[in-house]
Amino acid sequence: MKALKLLGLFTFIALLSACSSVKVATDYDKEVDFETYESFAFYKPGIDEAKISDLDKKRILRAIDLELTAEGFTKTEEPDFLISIFTESREEINVYQNNYGYTWGWSPYYYGHQHNTVTSNTEGTLYIDVIDTETNQLIWQGMGSGFLESDIDKKNERINEIVHEIIAQFPPQEKDEK
Description:
Layout: H1 2-19, E1 23-28, E2 39-42, H2 44-49, H3 54-70, E3 74-75, E4 81-100, E5 113-132, E6 138-147, H4 152-167
């Protein structure tokens, strides 16, 4: 019985984490020594091209600034690297059909009650690019995808979560291969 309760608890936790999960992937230049980078600034031309509202840009840039500062990087006028962003989004439409009525099986003369529910979700993808200021080359890219919220407070929390998950992967850590 105790094992069954634990299984139920783990299933519940797995469902909660699956609903709010952020998918993150990164790519980087293995020839770059990331230990030499200490300061950053935002790359305005790249940010201006991002196809999102100015309010969402501010939310994203504020979250990136907070995360990088927490990681020990300094925002400065003469940075070691630049940050640029771009976004993609796609809308997912879900149609749930609930048919119940008075007949068994399928019939062209079906006269039961039909109820359809249509919902939509927007999945957003945020790309954070790190550009070396000396070489003007892309050296790291992080990508985070997750479903977005329309409520302002929840949207802000979601953006912070996505940025946190991406920046947690920067700078890249070499994995010990055994």
